[in-house]
Amino acid sequence: MKIVVLIKQVPDTTEVKLDPRTGTLIREGVPSIINPEDKNALEEALKLKEQMGAQVIVLSMGPPQAEDALREALAMGADEAILLTDRAFAGADTWATATTLGLALKKIGDFDLVLAGRQAIDGDTAQVGPQVAEYLKIPQITYVRELVVEDGKVRAKRAIEDGYEEIEAKLPALLTITKEANTPRYPHAGAIMNAYRERKVTFWGVKDVDANPEQVGLQGSPTQVKRSFSPPPKEPGQIIKSGPAEAAKELVAILRQKNII
Amino acid sequence: MDFTFPKEYELLRRMIREFAEKEVAPLAEEIDRDERVPFEIIKKAAKLGLMGVPFPQKYGGAGAGEIGYCILMEEMNKVCGSTATIIGAHTGIGAMAIYLDGTEEQKQKYLVPLARGEKIAAFALTEPNAGSDAAAIQTRAIRDGNYFILNGSKLWITNGDIADVISVLAVTDPALGARGGVTAFIVEKDFPGFKVGRREEKMGIRGSPTAELFFEDCRVPAENVLGQFGAGFLTFMKTLDVGRISLAAGCLGAAQQALKMSMEFAKSRYQFGAPIAAKQAIQWMIADMAIEIEALRSLVYRTAWMMDSGNMGREFSTMAAMCKVFGSEVACRAADMAVQIHGGMGYMKKYPIERMYRDVRITRIFEGTNEIQREIIARNLFRNIGLRLR
């Protein structure tokens, strides 16, 4: 079985602090990590590899420094790592990103399963996985927290608001994995050393995936960002300190004044 | 010149930090309170290659060298002095002696399972009458055919009662003393005549087991002589040189944690209508801690780099002693200032700074007291200008 895991390198948003004066993000010194739910996707792939034998390929698109995310994936146990990096890929929205990943998947060929994280902690769109499946015209199951592969099919429990659905799809299929699925393993210390000293990351550019430059990057992106801004800070709350009866009256008066009731 | 860590070390540090914060930190208070050896942590650490970080992969290690091992000790000691001490006695000195001076057969037989964490090591030098005066040891080893018969006892041995393999120093020729009359041995816990005594109750690092060892006609095969016959003192001193770097790396971790906790506390603790961080008295303590931490970091990693570069001569030995003195004193000063900044809260058991204050105190004493280290440093310096002091 051949499993391709899509991963993205993101800033560790838990380490991001706000500048108290400007309210903007302090990006300096924020480490880059594998997007957490992509790690859950990788863990599912590694579990399948241990259970039934599989070749696990990690695929990412990003700037050259995204190589570090792929080396971490190699340290965790992935067999191969491919980084799509090219100036022409830059500025891509989710559509152009999915197109680029789709082209790379076609080049990799005869995969049985594509796993991706549910969504990335920087963009939070949850679009790329489904778009890749649409591009490749293969079945997709999103929000997966449990999966079984047998007889050329995958059966998955898919989280919905008030429970879960159990869905079966023919392989090849694409699944997006949620953090509830598993706890990603720590890489072995020796594997970390080898990931940098002995293992290889393959770099692919526009020509390697036979992309038309108009399909990818900024040019291939129907979405254009017009402006980024921080939401205005919330006004401080108001505490009514009088006794219960008084407070209720005051509260009602304020709510009336604001036309809320 | 380049002072940055190669990427593999950055990832190693991130993995170890996550492991320490998620798997070790939540247990640290209980490990200390109940004087409990955290076997479950040792087992998990072993699975990740953390019981043999410095050793080459062909000997079951992670192949991360002394630099990688210092990263482990730094991160682990931020959260749990007891766990760091167990790993330190196991990897940093117990197994390290076999790595430095063992034969290929000894490395295959003993170092491989130790580096994989399948077995635990200890390092037995100190005796009731031989602490700082290490050459005054009285444990005797007398040859009997293909065996040596050991008699005597060792005191305050970290991991003593949980170790499977112990590096032991014994006198083989009293007339020759430390220069030629002392030999190192690899002793297995199941060798006849080997016994462990009671576990000591300590002020700090209470989850790391400390025990007395007894050798009563203990039969050790001659092939378990570690290093050259008669040169055991050198093997042990060389091993301690190496152990002193990682000990200082642990101190670096403790000091950083003390600074971090102090800064967080000084930011959130309000007195006279402002955070106490606004007080100059607090700022000076914070600045002093930060200065010493950065100086210590440079000293520790430069010395670790010397070892990884194969430079283990007298200059290395001097540097290692400096690491030990400076590291332990920086950690103790930082813990002391952190308690002071925390005020009454720093004295309470429910804050981790109280535990750290007790845990770091031993670092000025064990693995060669700071007084002895200063003698080593001064003697080595005088030797460089042609004066030999004894």
Strands side by side in the biggest sheet of chain A? 11-10-9-12-8-1-6-7-13
Superfamily (CATH H level) name of chain A: HUPs
- Compute the number of structural domains of chain B: 3
> Mind summarizing the main beta sheet of chain B?
4 strands, mixed
What topology does this entry show?
The complex is a heterodimer of chains A (261) and B (390).
Chain A: E1 2-7, E2 9-11, E3 17-18, E4 25-26, E5 32-34, H1 36-52, E6 55-61, H2 67-76, E7 80-84, H3 94-108, E8 113-117, H4 128-136, E9 140-150, E10 153-160, E11 163-170, E12 173-177, H5 189-197, E13 202-204, H6 244-257
Parallel strand pairs in A: 1-6, 1-8, 6-7, 7-13, 8-12, 9-12
Antiparallel strand pairs in A: 2-5, 3-4, 9-10, 10-11
Helix pairs in contact in A: 2-5, 3-4
Chain B: H1 7-33, H2 39-47, H3 65-79, H4 81-101, H5 104-115, E1 121-124, E2 140-144, E3 147-158, E4 165-171, E5 182-188, E6 194-199, E7 210-221, E8 225-226, H6 232-268, E9 270-271, E10 274-275, H7 280-308, H8 314-342, H9 352-360, H10 370-384
Parallel strand pairs in B: 1-4
Antiparallel strand pairs in B: 2-3, 3-7, 4-5, 5-8, 6-7, 9-10
Helix pairs in contact in B: 1-3, 3-4, 3-6, 3-7, 4-5, 4-6, 6-7, 6-8, 7-8, 8-9, 8-10
How would you describe this structure to a colleague?
The complex is a heterodimer of chains A (261) and B (390). Chain A has helices spanning 36-52, 67-76, 94-108, 128-136, 189-197, 244-257, and strands at 2-7, 9-11, 17-18, 25-26, 32-34, 55-61, 80-84, 113-117, 140-150, 153-160, 163-170, 173-177, 202-204. Chain A is built from six helices and 13 strands. The termini of chain A are far apart. Chain A has 261 residues and is of the alpha/beta class. By secondary structure, chain B is of the alpha+beta class. Chain B folds into three domains: 7-120, Orthogonal Bundle (Butyryl-Coa Dehydrogenase, subunit A, domain 1); 122-230, Butyryl-CoA Dehydrogenase, subunit A, domain 2; 233-384, Butyryl-CoA Dehydrogenase, subunit A, domain 3. Chain B has ten helices and ten strands. In chain B, strand 2 (140-144) and strand 3 form a beta hairpin. The radius of gyration of chain B is 21 Å and the shape is globular. Chains A and B meet through helix 2 and helix 5 of A and helix 1 of B.
